[in-house]
Write a structure and sequence with these properties.
alpha/beta, 5-stranded mixed sheet, two-stranded antiparallel sheet, 8 helices, 18% strand
């Protein structure tokens, strides 16, 4: 029996044509293919958190550190990360340890400058601020976690000129419905109490900042 005997059919197809690789490289490719299949099952809830952790502990015992690093990065970019139920700890030598418990995200810089809005407080915030930028998001949204640090950085750099806020669309259906927020993240820009711009998707700062900054000099509509 060889290492490839236990591969799924999907993994075997993925490895077709991978010639000229060493046995070690082929094993690594097979591991990555099987990991992708494992995570797909987890995302579809065909695999419980406990079952996933048990499988990952096998990687830990086998000291497959690159595979665990890949697992961590893929999970961190997914909607499952915030409620994962276990953590990855990477040591200075590149080794990994798994432990039960919710992953703790570092607070983004200047996060305290970003207000939390609700259906009840939204209209007052729009009226009270000359320029208001609202990040419409949800806890399960992976791209929303990508844009959150960008919003925090802008809140720090534009403090006193622009007010930044977040609105959880899962908990505030009235405002989300009013502004037809059908996909997230959606960024709403208000000036003088009026909606003047709307951006969709996890935009990098280089794309989002100009859309906000141009309203600082433009007169209210």
């Amino acid at each position: 029996m060889t290492w490839s005997d236990g591969l799924s059919q999907r993994a075997r197809e993925r490895l077709k044509g991978v010639g000229g690789l060493s046995e070690q490289d082929r094993q690594a490719a097979a591991d990555e293919a099987e990991l992708d299949a494992l995570l797909r099952r987890f995302y579809k809830d065909d695999l419980t958190t406990g079952e996933l952790l048990q499988r990952l502990r096998t990687y830990e015992e086998q000291q497959k550190w690159p595979l665990l690093r890949s697992t961590r990065d893929k999970l961190k970019a997914s909607f499952k990360w915030s409620n994962l139920g276990f953590t990855f700890t990477e040591a200075a030598d590149g080794s990994f340890a798994l432990s039960e418990g919710k992953p703790v995200e570092p607070e983004p810089p200047a996060a305290g400058l970003v207000q939390e809005l609700t259906d009840a407080t939204f209209d007052a915030a729009v009226k009270a601020n000359a320029v208001l930028v609202v990040d419409c998001w949800a806890t399960w949204c992976g791209p929303c976690r990508m844009v959150a640090p960008v919003i925090a950085e802008l809140a720090r750099d534009y403090a006193g000129r622009v007010t930044f806020a977040k609105l959880d669309v899962d908990r505030n259906h009235a405002i989300a419905s009013r502004y037809r927020v059908q996909s997230i993240p959606t960024i709403l820009v208000f000036k003088g109490g009026r909606l003047v711009d709307q951006k969709l998707g996890a935009m990098p700062r280089a794309m989002l900042e100009p859309a906000i900054a141009r309203h600082l000099d433009a007169p209210a509509a």
